[in-house]
Structures are given as structure tokens and as C-alpha cells.
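Re-running the complex after MR caught last week's input typo. The corrected sequence lines follow. Everything else is unchanged.
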Amino acid sequence: DGGITQSPKYLFRKEGQNVTLSCEQNLNHDAMYWYRQDPGQGLRLIYYSQIVNDFQKGDIAEGYSVSREKKESFPLTVTSAQKNPTAFYLCASSAGRGGRRYEQYFGPGTRLTVT
Amino acid sequence: QKEVEQDPGPLSVPEGAIVSLNCTYSNSAFQYFMWYRQYSRKGPELLMYTYSSGNKEDGRFTAQVDKSSKYISLFIRDSQPSDSATYLCAMSANFGNEKLTFGTGTRLTIIP
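Corrected-run output:
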């Protein structure tokens, strides 16, 4: 089955620790995205990558870092500099070209709780 | 003011009713419009994709875009309890980077 996987589903960390969230896709999509979702705020873009070895900051990149060494993988690191890291994190991908490049497909999400 | 406004609800309707969900937006550059359905504690699922103005129908779902009013709608006919979810609108301008701007979502409950 083609799709996007995120792991783990739930993650608990102590304040001050960095944590890395995994995102893998087998859709052969060029573009990948990271969002966070908070109650009442919708989805906000953290980082996105349109091609391997290249990525851009989204609207709320401070305190986060990413890498894109492989087409299939786009891990997100939540650093200790992120002031309010507890949230639901969603990874998405899109074809990145052609008429339907705006269609983004989402993974199941990782719920991160930092105490 | 947010670029995309969406009433968060909650909205409760009886089974079989027609549901109308709406978003308004302020950026006239938006050309691509999407509706996502999100079940509790799950990732959003793409329901409808529309380019520019007009209507698009897929089964019980109809998406409408009125660019002159900066208003988009999603209609659900013969609503089912399985339609109970949060519905998110999303839109994008043709800037070449495929960035989406999302509404906050409307929580819908279909009462059996």
C-alpha cells in the first residue's frame, strides 16, 4: 500500500531534550511538508522540501530543524529552543509537479507531549 | 485578520440532512481550493480539489468556489454518522511552492 507513515504515534519528552519525529512516504512524491496542529489554530507550516537536499522554512520554523537526504524521508527535530512544543505534528507529501501538485496527502500524525 | 476564516462550530445535524460548510478568504491570489476531512486523532484526508471558480461533485459531496465573493463551500448530501469529523478548507496561490493555507476547521456531528 502506498502512503505516508509517521512514528511514533505518541511521544513524551522532558523539557530541554531534543526529539526527532519520523516521516516516510512511498508515493514517489517530490515535495514533503511538516505542520503542527493546535486546538483552534488549524494547521501551521513548519518546514517544507520540494526536492532532495533542499528545504525552506515555513511560517513557524523557529525551534525546529529538518533534513531531506532521501526522497522518501523527511525527519523533523523539535529542539529545546522551541518554546511550546506540545502539539500534534503532521507530515504531508505532494507530487510537487503537474496539475495536481497542490494536493497534499497526510500521514497519521505524532502527538508530542513535553513536560 | 486571518487569510482564511472558517467557523469552528460545533455543528450538529440529523442523519440524512444536507450539510453546508463554508470558508471565506482575503487573498485574491488563491486559485486552488481543497477540502479535507479529519477524524479525531488522525491525519487529514483529502476530499475535494477545485481549481478556480465553479462546482465539482463527487458522490454525496459538492464543492463550490465563488472567487468574486472569496467564498468556498462544501455540501454533503444524505449525511451519515460516518461523516462526523472535522472539515478543513485549504487553499493555495500559484507561487510555485505549493504552500497551503488552512482554515481552523469545522467540527461536524451527524446525529443518528
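None of the earlier attempt is carried over here. The two ends of chain B are 37 Å apart (CA to CA). The mean pLDDT of chain B is 92.
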